[in-house]
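ZIP family metal transporter structure dump, as promised
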Amino acid sequence: IAFASGETALGIAIATAIAVQNVPDGFAMAVPAVRAGVSAPRTLLYTTISGGVPEPIAAAIGFSLVAVVSGLFPVAAGFAAGAMIAVVFRELIPSSHGHGYADTATAAFVLGFSVMLVVDTVLAV
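structure tokens r here:
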């Protein structure tokens, strides 16, 4: 959506953030699958399909909508940010702290937030 609205620097920052975020997402899906006995090639296939298929489709839809509807980017970005924050606070933080790994989960959160600050600063968005 940022690319379609002419915000190239912001688009690069968002694409970078999504790429970085896909790594732990892949692990979050792969580790339980392997522990459940799913083979490594099948796990790789499932994780690739889960991240590699929906994202480009959603990006194409978003790009098309922004090209047609002016002023959609701020609304879409706000909606996406709100949805992500809701998931983090309602699901991820409680579940990561509920299994005896509170310190590790907190350190990972701080590290991830710090990396995003660095990416944002380096790309000067």
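The longest helix spans residues 8-35.
lmk if u need the other ones
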